[in-house]
């Protein structure tokens, strides 16, 4: 199996037309636009597919957005990753706390009250572990 080439789709927002202009880096003339990012993505993949006479599923396309927009989006992506990891850690600590409290002889209802959970959730956590 050969490694396929990755093409870079470069996006620019046209505020006057409220559209996204997109072109493939290194392929002069392979360009299109869309009223939304999703539409522009779809159209540039279709255009590249026709340009190269290749099925769209066989193409590797990397999207490159204007730096200012990418910086904002990357910041949110990083923050969401931190939040997801914190959520997973909190979930694990909750499971451990439920086990510890019930092992200490507390009822499921009392463990739930101490942890701010429903007794049904405590039951679910114990059954799943």
From TrEMBL:
InterPro entries: TTHA1013/TTHA0281-like (IPR035069)
SUPFAM superfamilies found in the cross-reference section: TTHA1013/TTHA0281-like
Protein name, as recorded: Unannotated protein
